[in-house]
Design goal:
alpha/beta; 60s Ribosomal Protein L30, Chain: A; Alpha/beta knot; 4-stranded mixed sheet; elongated
C-alpha cells in the first residue's frame, strides 16, 4: 500500500502527467478512468494504480489480486493527489506509446485514404475531440504538426474517449514534408479559404487530405501554399470562422458521406 507522496512511483506519475519531454523520453503516457482502462490494449500496459477503495470495488472484477509486480494500491488521498480529474474513479495506468509511420500507412492505404493535417493546435480539448471525431469519420491518419500540443497530454487523452488507442496518428511532424509525401501518392490536399469551393459541391471520393489551422490564426501561408484546391464551409450570419474541431468534423463527415453512397 502506497501511503506517501514521496514514494518514487507517485513522483513518476506526477512527472508523466506534467512533463511532455519526460513522456517522450520514457515513451509512455498516463491513462485514467475505468472506461479508458477497459479499452486499453493489454500488451501496452506498463503499470496499474488503484486507489484503496477502487481496488476493493474493481480489482477482482478486472482480474487483479494486488500481488502483481506492476500493480500498485494507493491510499485514497494519495490517489486523489495524482489524479487529473475532479472526481477520480481510482484507477490509472502507465501505457506504452505506439508509433505509426506515415509512409507505411500511405503504402497500405494509397489513394483511397482520408487525412487530416493539424497545424499548431494549442487546445488539448480540441485535439482530443479531433482524434475522437477522426476515428468516427473513418480518417485514415491524423497528422499532427510539431507546433501542436502533445497528443499524450492527459487532457487530450481524456477527450479522445479511447480513440487514441485505435486511430492511426503521427505527431511532431513537419507538415510541409508530409504534404509533399501525400502529393507523391496522388492525394489531393484541400485548404480553407473564403473564396474556396463550397465543401458540398466538391468531390472527396478520391485520396483526400484536409488542412486544419490553429484556433487563433488559421493556416500559415507556407502550409496553405501546399493546397491543391481551396474549399469553404458555408456559414450564415456574421460568423467568419469555426472552431478547429468543428471544422475538422464537418469536412471529414462530408468526405465519409460521399464515400458511403
Amino acid at each position: 500500500m502506497i501511503s506517501s507522496n514521496s514514494n518514487k512511483n507517485i513522483k513518476e506519475i506526477n512527472k508523466l502527467n506534467k512533463d511532455s519531454a519526460y513522456r517522450r523520453e520514457r515513451d509512455v503516457f498516463v491513462v485514467e478512468g475505468i472506461r479508458m482502462f477497459t479499452e486499453l490494449p493489454i500488451e501496452r500496459i506498463e503499470s496499474v494504480y488503484f486507489s484503496e477503495s477502487a481496488f476493493a470495488r474493481y480489482g477482482e472484477e478486472l482480474g487483479y489480486t494486488g500481488n502483481e509486480p506492476s500493480v500498485y494500491v494507493l491510499k485514497d488521498n494519495i490517489f486523489h493527489s495524482i489524479s487529473q480529474t475532479k472526481t477520480p474513479q481510482g484507477l490509472l495506468a502507465v501505457v506504452k506509446c505506439y508509433h505509426y509511420e506515415l509512409a507505411d500507412i500511405l503504402d497500405h492505404k494509397g489513394e483511397a485514404g482520408m487525412y487530416l493535417l493539424v497545424e499548431s493546435l494549442q487546445d488539448p480539448g480540441n485535439l482530443g475531440t479531433i482524434m475522437r471525431t477522426s476515428e468516427a469519420a473513418g480518417v485514415t491518419c491524423l497528422i499532427i504538426g510539431g507546433a501542436s500540443c502533445d497528443p499524450y497530454n492527459p487532457k487530450v487523452v481524456r477527450s479522445t474517449m479511447g480513440a487514441i488507442f485505435r486511430l492511426p496518428f503521427v505527431y511532431n511532424v513537419d507538415l510541409l514534408e508530409a504534404a509533399e509525401l501525400l502529393k507523391e501518392k496522388g492525394v489531393v490536399i484541400y485548404g480553407a479559404h473564403l473564396a474556396g469551393q463550397n465543401i458540398y459541391d466538391e468531390d472527396f471520393t478520391g485520396g483526400t487530405a484536409f488542412l486544419i489551422g490553429n484556433e487563433g490564426n488559421g493556416l500559415s501561408k507556407e502550409l496553405s501554399s501546399k493546397a491543391d484546391k481551396l474549399i469553404k464551409i458555408p456559414m450564415c450570419g456574421k460568423v467568419e470562422s469555426l472552431n478547429a474541431a468543428t471544422s475538422a468534423a464537418l469536412v471529414s463527415y462530408e468526405c465519409m458521406r460521399q464515400r458511403m453512397k
